[in-house]
TrEMBL record:
Pfam families the record matches: DUF222
Organism: Agromyces agglutinans
InterPro entries hit by this protein: DUF222, HNH_nuc
UniProt name for this protein: DUF222 domain-containing protein
Biased composition regions of type Basic and acidic residues, renumbered to the chain: 324-349, 358-367, 515-525
Coiled-coil region(s): none
Organism phylogeny: Bacteria, Bacillati, Actinomycetota, Actinomycetes, Micrococcales
Residue ranges of domain HNH nuclease in the record: 423-475
Region (Disordered): 253-274, 311-374, 499-532
Ranges of biased composition (kind: Gly residues): 313-323
Length: 532
């Protein structure tokens, strides 16, 4: 009779021989799904035994065994490291297998007599291959906090009921997915916790938090854990601006008709994660401009951005820099540039800048996509930001020239320039009503003001040259294909060619009053009456 290891080797060889890797591409639809299900059934059985072996390795590597523990005898610090080296799985996967294996392995009592596993029903379903490890881990993770306070018989009944749901042995004839089972396990855990949810709330209050990591690849990782009510508010915020219904909420009748013809959201190329990022960016910008938050040095929350004057002068991108000027938003930050020294600039509204504008060559810079060479740096973030982002900030606000000598001494301070005043912003808000790109639902309070004709091209800081754009459309206006121009002081937009091949210019507004005026004129033309 072959050993277990020999049997496993024979099984592995047979599977490698019989299962062709490109087989799925040749399957019919029915064959594909049937074989996928059978393969998963085999995988469930294999996964269960992998967890059982991991649990036994952990049992033989207990710290109290000292030098006799298995991991130490094999030159490893822990059971997880030993499993990593034997199986080549990740450390996190090894720990997941150990946790499941420990929860489902039979134990030994204080007197040496056998004792059942902590989760006997789950262990039995795993052993037959009826229950997957994802589902088993979800149930254990949710039920375990209630174990110390739950009635043992009620706890066992909950475990049995959840296993029945998972393997379709209960009232439902359909197997639960791992995610569905997790939700049910949460409900059982709440019911079993005789002390209520307050202790869990206290733990959550201690663990809540957000962390900004170190920049990698031009992005800053965000991690943390939110209180449920805070997460609910954030989800509602995302839902309000990203649901298909609200996504069309600011459209005109013509825009709605066009969207219906090509499918709602047909022009949206961002992923859902990217859209959520942009909603959060706009919300932060709006909050920082609101004036309701603590000031820093008498100005709204401001981020300093440093960039060399030569880099900013080097390109002709929009809102470019003259003699090394930075910008500031209407929130009141200060900006700067130096014609051969250093300048500083702030942009109010939380994403502004101040510049450490150094003259000199551009050998340290990288080519920016809009024009010019070099990069800028934001205070508190290690990753560089592009000159395109700097010019977008400049387009949004104003500039102030700050000049340093070669030693770094401040020698000149100019007056603020190119800043849309609060009065101008209010006027533009009433006229545009929100981001002027058709189909965009970002409200006016969350928008930035874009110079249609850049300052570098002689554009004025005047309502006739400013339009509202959301964070995403402002950042991508040079590359997205959307065109914007002013005709007699009215914003007109032209869709990119891929969206509307024959696209012409048409007026754009989200202002309710202007839309009402437009409807009245259209109704008057339909009646044959002269428009008012």
């Amino acid at each position: 009779m072959p050993s277990t290891r020999d049997a496993l080797e024979q099984l592995r060889s047979m599977l490698a021989r019989e299962l062709e890797f490109d087989r799925p591409a040749r399957c019919t639809d029915d064959e594909l799904l049937a074989e996928l299900g059978t393969l998963e059934a085999v995988g469930r059985l294999v996964d269960a035994h992998r967890s059982a072996y991991a649990g036994e390795v952990a049992e033989r590597s207990r710290v109290e065994l000292g030098d006799a523990r298995l991991s130490r005898r094999r030159g490893c610090r822990s059971a997880a490291e030993l499993i990593e080296r034997v199986t080549q799985v990740s450390g996190s996967e090894a720990r997941r297998r150990i946790a499941l294996g420990e929860a489902t392995r039979a134990r030994t009592g204080l007197r040496g007599d056998p004792a059942p596993a902590r989760y006997p029903a789950i262990a039995a379903a795993l052993a037959t291959g009826d229950l997957g490890v994802d589902a088993a881990a979800s149930v254990i993770r949710e039920l375990e906090p209630a174990r110390p306070v739950a009635d043992p018989s009620a706890f066992a009944a909950a475990e049995r009921a959840l296993v029945d749901e998972a393997i379709a042995a209960g009232e439902s004839p359909v197997r639960c997915t791992a995610d569905e089972l997790r939700v049910q396990a949460q409900a059982w855990s709440t019911l079993l916790d005789q002390d209520g949810r307050e202790p869990d709330d206290e733990r959550a209050m201690r663990r809540r938090g957000l962390r900004l990591g170190r920049a990698r690849g031009g992005l800053v990782p965000l991690a943390g854990e939110l209180m449920p009510e805070v997460a609910a508010q954030l989800r509602r915020l995302f839902d309000a601006y990203l649901s298909p219904r609200s996504g069309l909420g600011f459209q005109t009748a013509e825009e709605r008709a066009e969207s219906a013809g090509r499918g709602a959201g047909a022009g949206e190329q961002r992923t859902a994660d990217q859209q959520r990022h942009d909603v959060l960016a706009a919300a932060l910008d709006s909050a920082a401009r609101s004036g309701e938050h603590p000031s820093i040095g008498g100005a709204p929350p401001t981020v300093l951005v440093s960039v060399r004057a030569a880099d900013l002068r080097g390109g002709g991108g929009r809102g470019g820099g003259g003699d090394g000027r930075g910008e500031r938003d209407e929130g009141g930050g200060r900006g700067g540039g130096g014609d051969d020294g250093r300048g500083e600039r702030d942009e109010g509204g939380g994403r502004g800048g101040g510049g450490d504008l150094r003259g000199g060559d551009d050998r340290h810079g990288g080519r920016d996509g809009v024009g010019g060479r070099g990069v800028a740096y934001a205070e508190g973030v290690d990753a560089p930001i592009s000159l395109r982002a700097v010019r977008r900030m400049i387009c949004t606000g104003g500039t102030q020239s700050v000049v340093f000598d070669d030693a770094g001494r401040l020698i000149a301070l100019g007056s603020p320039e190119r800043c849309f005043t609060p009065h101008q912003r209010r006027a533009i808000t009433v006229r545009d009503g929100g981001c002027i790109i058709p189909g965009c639902s970002v409200p006016a309070a969350w928008c930035e003001i874009h110079h249609v004709v850049p300052d570098a091209a002689g554009g004025a800081t005047h309502p006739d040259n400013g339009v509202l754009l959301c964070w995403f459309h402002h950042r991508s206006i040079d590359t997205s294909g959307w065109g914007i121009r002013m005709i007699r002081g009215v914003p007109h937009v032209r869709p990119p060619a891929w969206l509307d091949p024959g696209g012409g210019w048409r007026p754009s507004t989200k202002s309710p009053t202007r839309l009402a005026d437009r409807r009245e004129r259209e109704a008057a033309r339909a009646r044959g009456a002269p428009a008012a």
